[in-house]
UniProtKB/TrEMBL annotation:
Keywords: ATP-binding, Helicase, Hydrolase, Nucleotide-binding. One of its GO terms (molecular function) is ATP binding. The keyword Hydrolase applies. Pfam families: DnaB_C. It comes from Leptospira interrogans serovar Australis str. 200703203. PROSITE patterns: SF4_HELICASE. GO terms for biological process: DNA replication. This is DnaB-like helicase C-terminal domain protein. Residues 1-123 form the SF4 helicase domain. Residues 1-23, 40-60 are annotated as: Disordered. SUPFAM superfamilies: P-loop containing nucleoside triphosphate hydrolases (SSF52540). The lineage of its organism: Bacteria, Pseudomonadati, Spirochaetota, Spirochaetia, Leptospirales. Gene3D superfamilies: P-loop containing nucleotide triphosphate hydrolases. Residues 1-11, 43-60 have a biased composition (Basic and acidic residues). GO terms for cellular component: cytosol.
Length: 123
């Protein structure tokens, strides 16, 4: 993989190198690799729609470029005040498929059970 101590090219170069290494490992091992990425603060600065989008991935466009699938979990309850949430969205999370190299993009909802840190299908 990449040596995180090598910071000659800056943080963006470091993240890009790690992203490429993960992609290469997945190809060689012929298995999926799930990697997490921090979001930039840009999402918090948007006044209206704070749903995450590809451009919100922090540090590098390389993550967006290298990934086969990029998905986000959006919980309105974490972003808006209790009185701003519609009753039908309480206890729910939106799963956003923002990139899918071999399929459709879109979103769907799941029930979120915080006491179990678990997502369930909505009945």
């Amino acid at each position: 993989m990449s040596d995180p101590k090598n910071k000659d090219g800056g943080r963006q170069q470091e993240v890009a190198s790690i992203s490429r290494s993960l992609k290469q490992m997945a190809k060689e091992a012929r298995c999926p690799i799930i990697a997490l990425s921090q979001m930039s603060r840009a999402v918090e600065q948007r006044s209206k729609d704070q749903k995450p989008q590809l451009s919100d991935l922090r540090e590098s466009g390389a993550i967006e470029q290298d990934a086969d699938i990029v998905s986000f979990i959006y919980r309105e309850e974490k972003v808006k005040g209790e009185d701003e949430i519609s009753p039908e969205m309480r206890g729910k999370a939106e799963i956003i498929i923002a990139k899918n190299r071999s399929g459709p993009i879109g979103s769907f909802h799941l029930a979120f059970r915080p006491e179990l840190s678990r997502f369930d299908n909505i009945d």
